[in-house]
Design brief:
Elements: H1 12-37, H2 47-52, H3 54-67, E1 70-75, E2 81-87, E3 97-103, E4 112-120, E5 123-127, E6 137-142, E7 149-154, E8 161-164
Antiparallel strand pairs: 1-2, 1-8, 2-5, 3-4, 3-6, 4-5, 6-7
């Protein structure tokens, strides 16, 4: 008349209750594996030196603004080539080459620097091999001597063209 006692390991509830902590332990090991095998390129090792260079970078933006430099960047279908139309209002001759930096916001391995060659007055081109697809890129064009720069953010979903201008942030008040 008494029912036989079923051992705990044959009952359902202890296993359901133990599955939660077991899942957390497995997820912890997966997270640890990802942390070990992927590098974190968001933090610069020499942030103090990089911070001191900000004033030099701002001077480059000011130099571009003073010269009236602006650029229109156009990407070919399939991102196989890039064309840049550069204009300058100070009348100085444009350099024979320009540097185009294409930077991913978080994945340093997708960044690249391309040398653009002048093919006509104010027109620069180069073949392009994008290292991956993304919805957001930072673009910077600068002269080979790094005296000036124009930059901007490009979102491919907004179209294959972007206008780059000097990045003159307002002074803090």
């Amino acid at each position: 008349m008494s029912q036989p006692v079923i051992p705990w390991y044959k009952q359902r509830w202890p296993w359901i209750l133990m599955s939660g902590p077991a899942i957390v332990v497995v997820a912890g090991f997966i997270t640890l594996g990802l942390a070990i095998h992927t590098s974190d390129s968001l933090v610069d090792d020499d942030y103090y030196k990089k911070g001191k260079a900000i004033n030099e970078d701002l001077a480059r933006d000011q130099q571009a603004a003073t010269a009236g430099i602006g650029a229109t960047v156009m990407f070919a279908d399939g991102l196989s080539a890039v064309r840049v139309l550069l204009n300058s209002q100070d009348g100085k001759p444009l350099p024979e080459t320009l540097l185009l930096s294409i930077q991913h916001p978080t994945m340093e391995g997708m960044d690249q620097v391309i040398t653009l060659r002048q093919e006509g007055p104010g027109t620069f081109t180069a073949p392009l091999a994008m290292k991956g697809e993304a919805r957001h890129w930072y673009l910077r064009i600068e002269d080979p001597e790094r005296q000036w720069r124009v930059e901007g953010e490009w979102k491919p979903l907004n179209g294959p063209m972007i206008r780059l201008v000097p990045n003159l942030a307002p002074a803090d008040s």
